[in-house]
């Protein structure tokens, strides 16, 4: 690595950023096509609910193993394989004749996206010097947010005019371009210089932990799912002991003890994502069932947050090259907290400008948090472990998403029960919305405090 980025570094940044659109397009755009898909394939509600969940399960199961394989085998190679697997799974889903086949292809898409998420930041860290990493990390984060922003609109348009099957083909042009760039413009390879073997036993225990965690959280408060959650904690303890004793662990658990900055930054990320992930879901229900907005109008208002995040993230990433990243990330936590405080005061008569102002604060705050926090985590890891560090950071994000959404689902179960959604449920839905925001405020206050206390990366 030289003092200044090479031309190859900028080509790699372009490649990774284009790749950052592929996974969100394959994940978020399909959600809009679910009603049409379910109707044609005669899928029941239980199987339909697993269309987004299958991707989440695969992400959690394979994120950490993919990061370790990238450090051993090559980060570009694993990134490229993830893109190919994602595309092949999309082609498989395009020709699906049953909901079970769609779910299998969605699981394969989740595996591919886990390989991409686990390696994208590690690749950027591998080619950009420490004092030049903020901007590329920020641009990469902005591309992910833009992908998540555009995916529902593109998915809805394609479903309306071409049919749900063609939604799975949305990422294909980008796949061809990215693979072309990798072949002709990014000839190098990056991996750990320290010899290591893949810990298959650790990977198996980790997969069992992830499956038990997902099973437990997605079915609360059912006693059987509560038992699965207890089993997940036991398996996590077994995994930690195995990794501490293994000569070639999947992840060195000592990383968390060696760097307080690393471990506390991951904890901050989990809390931030646990608070923010359910917001779009809850606001969509509030706007349509409590305020009577159309789906299109609700979607346009929700774009405020994503657009602000996409605009601010590159700027915040660049600033983290010159100012302490933990202060920028902590300011982002505080701004997000202020946005949620504004949203917590809305009622059945709150006007759109007030909601938009709250979403703007959340978007700006999260944009200021994500890039600098990623910078801190990756800067705190050893050069030989950036693949595992990137995978661990994304695992913290996905786990936070799962925990936050599961707690909100539990509030919905308590306040609304198993009834069909309608405008008559406006009052209990508003109560659920306030409960979810109060829970988010607790998470955000803890995240802000944790961010301030973590110290400075070496």
Automatic annotation (TrEMBL):
Location relative to the cell: Membrane
Major localisation: membrane
Sequence ranges assigned to domain Major facilitator superfamily (MFS) profile in this UniProt record: 12-458
One Pfam assignment: MFS_1
UniProt-listed PROSITE patterns: MFS, SUGAR_TRANSPORT_1
Transmembrane segment boundaries: 12-34, 46-66, 78-99, 111-130, 137-158, 164-186, 198-220, 226-244, 265-286, 298-315, 327-346, 352-370, 426-453
Record's bilayer topology term: Multi-pass membrane protein
Key words, A-Z: Membrane, Transmembrane, Transmembrane helix, Transport
CDD domains in the record: MFS_MMR_MDR_like
Domain of life: Bacteria
Protein name (database record): MFS transporter
Organism field: Gilvimarinus algae
Classification of source organism: Bacteria, Pseudomonadati, Pseudomonadota, Gammaproteobacteria, Cellvibrionales
